[in-house]
Amino acid sequence: MQALREIQTAETDTLCVNVPKSFLHRKLEIIVIPVDEALSLAWPSAFFEQTAGCFANTPLVREEQENYEVRDEILSRYCHA
Prior knowledge:
little secondary structure; 0% strand
């Protein structure tokens, strides 16, 4: 799926979005979400201060690894090995 993401500041009640030519003559879904209300990709405030050392008294153990299954090789006309 091809997607277009654009962040603009609304100075009036109208926004203009230029779409790629591949979107022309197709139905498009348009969703407008204020950025200050959207999910933030930043770390929460004081995240590292609150979580640093939280496993300090818990030993981390890596369990013994099992053998992985051997699968047949798949070759495709689109894959050039």
